[in-house]
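Structural prep section.
Before we set up the soaks we want a predicted structure of the protein with pyridoxal-5'-phosphate in place, mainly to decide which crystallisation condition to try first. Input record follows.
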Amino acid sequence: MSPATPAADRRDEIAAGLATVQQRLAGACAAAGRRRDELVLVAVSKTWPASDVLLAYDLGVREVAENKDQEAVAKRAKVAELADLRWHFVGQLQTNKARSVATYADLVHSLDRTRLARALSEGAIRAGREVDVLIQVALDDSQGRGGVDPDALWGLAETAATLPGLRVAGLMGLAPLQGPPVRAFARLHELSVRLQSEHPEATVLSAGMSADLEDAVAAGATHLRVGTAVFGHRRPTLR
Ligand SMILES: *Cc1c(COP(=O)(O)O)cnc(C)c1O
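Run finished without errors. Recording the tokens verbatim:
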């Protein structure tokens, strides 16, 4: 999309993206013997303007995700009339942004350390809210993508579960940058089953993006975070 793309054309682009993703999800469900209503499609609107969020909403999207607090706050203000739109926060979250994120996020996918849990809890209490959080697990050793080491997951879950204003809703994982995602997603699913044995309410499994959503559905994902396949290729230098 160029800045000059007329709104009607942009609506068509997003409609086509959504239709393709819905078709892929239907196919993945059929292949995995799962029901479509077990899955939540989260449209990752980061880098795209608020006008795209409005178009997506008009096309039926009710879950969007952002990965930068400042961008999320500005975008939300522009579509404040969409009262039943749910906001997800994905990607690495700095502790000093956590209080702000806790005022609006319905589901934070990237809890990966105790300090962040405490900051989110404080923000939620101050805002008089309950914030659902997913613990992000590091599925490979690549640095800089966030996520707690699987061995440290249990302690973090215990701590987060005791903090007021937070609800541990499940796990999130990113496929490794190299190689097929199947083993990493299977490991994530195992961890999710084990987490639910101690925290039965932690039923969310956020896995799968544009490139690997079929593998994620096969591995038991409940939430798919899909940006490119819905909105197109992000061009960060232009926006
Ligand atoms: C951007 C982003 C996505 C969406 O990625 P696509 O490949 O564009 O579908 C999913 N999850 C996280 C954490 C992201 O930052």
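Observations: The radius of gyration is 17 Å.
Flagged for discussion at group meeting.
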